[in-house]
């Protein structure tokens, strides 16, 4: 079979993720919360307020080196340095700029593993219709750069184990989880690179890069809390997308601080979904949709369903009608994404007309449906195209 010859094993590899998957040595201060920093300053016999000074330097101020912190005595900084401790943010190793303004960054972690983080000025259209647009007028014209709002697409793992058939990241398998600091650090590095002033400029975060965030749940949630409490992002401007790790969808509903939820639906029936997303064998549509129906949405909040359209596979009018039945009664919107093609992906992108027809069926049934504009396809930065293509471009 062509699939196997391209190095992709059949079936779902979820069960094969080693439980103690390697994580880099913990010499980075980026990723520590206030409690952990407090323990650190106590261990060094320092007054407690030093923890807050470290926290402020790392998160709101986004400093990248300890020796840039002017408020803390040199002797303490030297003592931290002697332990090999520093802020250690991920480093932008390479950047690829698209004609549409999208920038794909290759980020190097402390152990030289790399992931990709994408900057999309003006968002990708996926936020449209979720009520977030009304805040656009926040930005005074004199401070606006050449973008009014932007979205950062963040990775949660090095590679991905879920093995969806249409996704290039899947071809990598999973190497390891990212730490909370490595997740936060992708964002702080891009904010600094773009010289973003969060008080004046509008940035959304989508956890839709490489990896399955809900298979790295604790680090992902810790990163979210650091972004909200440290860096200063409102949780309402973050969205996490999952392929459907049902127990974690339920845990996520119980979190006090949490982003919005997006579900990669991609097919309206079990046989079809199993074929393109092997994870469906572990948690089928009935289990997934029950978890979504039970999900405690907040005031004005909607759940997003993402649906990658694969020509002649899941994009027939009958599939659209099945989607209508599946999501009936759920406060939601549907984001349609015409397949972003890539080497090793055996599916084709549908014509625009087919995408429109699919959208119309949903809209006419009263379901808000949006077609996501592909961003940065020319630099392999679009959804499902992230795969550390160091040599490719
Ligand atoms: N692992 C998570 C988040 C990252 S993938 C998840 O799957 O939800 C982000 C989105 O990109 C998902 O909705 C996925 O269905 C979509 N996607 C993956 N490969 C794609 C491709 N080749 N073309 C278009 N969208 C794709
Ligand atoms: Fe992993 Fe998401 Fe790609 Fe599926 S679509 S392989 S879950 S990154």
What would you call the structural class?
alpha/beta
Q: In angstroms, what is the radius of gyration?
A: 21 Å
* Largest sheet properties: 10 strands, mixed
Q: Which of globular, elongated, flat, extended, rod-shaped describes the shape?
A: elongated
User: What is the rounded distance between the termini?
Assistant: 29 Å
Low-confidence stretches: 1-20, 125-144
What proportion strand? Answer: 15-25%
Give the SSE string.
HHHHEEEEEEHEHEHEHHEHEHE
Overall pLDDT: 87
| Helix coverage percent | 25-40%
Count of helical regions: 11
DSSP E strands, number: 12
Give the ligands present.
S-adenosyl-L-homocysteine, iron/sulfur cluster
Strand order of the largest sheet: 1-2-3-4-7-8-9-10-11-12
What is this structure, in a nutshell?
The protein has helices at 2-5, 34-43, 49-58, 74-82, 180-193, 217-231, 246-253, 270-276, 285-294, 317-327, 352-364, and strands at 91-97, 103-108, 114-121, 149-153, 157-159, 174-177, 202-207, 238-242, 260-264, 303-309, 332-338, 369-371.
Structural account:
The protein has 393 residues and is of the alpha/beta class. It contains 11 helices and 12 strands. Strands 1-2-3-4-7-8-9-10-11-12 form a 10-stranded mixed sheet, with helices on one face. Helix 7 (246-253) links the parallel strand 8 (238-242) and strand 9 (260-264). The protein is elongated. The two termini are 29 Å apart. Mean pLDDT is 87; it is low at 1-20 and 125-144. Bound molecules: S-adenosyl-L-homocysteine (SAH) and iron/sulfur cluster. The site of S-adenosyl-L-homocysteine (SAH) has 17 residues, from strand 8 and strand 10.
């Amino acid at each position: 079979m062509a699939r196997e010859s391209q190095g992709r094993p059949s079936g779902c590899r979820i069960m094969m993720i080693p439980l103690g998957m390697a994580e880099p040595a913990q010499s980075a201060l980026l990723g520590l919360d206030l409690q952990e920093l407090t323990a650190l300053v106590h261990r060094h016999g320092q007054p407690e307020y030093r923890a807050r000074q470290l926290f402020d330097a790392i998160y709101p101020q986004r400093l990248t080196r300890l020796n840039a912190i002017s408020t803390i005595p040199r002797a303490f900084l030297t003592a931290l340095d002697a332990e090999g401790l520093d802020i250690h943010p991920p480093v932008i190793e390479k950047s690829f700029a698209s004609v549409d303004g999208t920038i794909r960054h290759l980020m190097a972690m402390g152990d030289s593993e790399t992931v990709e983080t994408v900057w999309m000025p003006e968002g990708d259209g996926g936020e449209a219709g979720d009520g977030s647009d009304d805040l656009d007028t926040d930005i005074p014209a004199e401070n606006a750069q050449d973008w009014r709002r932007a979205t950062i697409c963040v990775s949660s793992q090095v590679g991905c184990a879920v093995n969806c058939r249409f996704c290039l990241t899947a071809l990598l398998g999973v190497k390891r989880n990212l730490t909370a600091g490595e997740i936060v650090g992708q964002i702080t590095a891009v904010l600094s690179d773009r010289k973003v002033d969060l008080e004046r400029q509008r940035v959304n975060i989508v956890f839709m890069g490489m990896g399955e965030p809900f298979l790295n749940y604790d680090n992902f949630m810790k990163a979210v809390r650091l972004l909200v409490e440290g860096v200063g992002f409102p949780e309402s401007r973050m969205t996490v997308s999952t392929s459907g790790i049902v127990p974690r969808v339920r845990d996520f509903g119980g979190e006090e601080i949490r982003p919005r939820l997006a579900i990669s639906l991609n097919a309206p029936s079990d046989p079809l979904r199993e074929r393109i997303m092997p994870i469906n064998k572990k948690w089928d549509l009935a289990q997934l949709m029950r978890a979504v129906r039970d999900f405690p949405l907040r005031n004005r909040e909607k759940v997003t369903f993402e649906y990658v359209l694969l020509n002649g596979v899941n994009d027939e009018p009958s599939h659209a009608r099945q989607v209508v039945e599946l999501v009936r009664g759920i406060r939601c919107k549907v984001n349609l994404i015409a397949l972003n093609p890539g080497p090793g992906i055996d599916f084709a992108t549908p014509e625009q007309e087919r995408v429109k027809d699919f959208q119309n069926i949903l809209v006419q049934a009263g379901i808000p449906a949006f077609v996501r504009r592909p961003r940065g396809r020319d630099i392999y930065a679009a959804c499902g195209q992230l795969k550390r293509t160091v040599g490719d471009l």
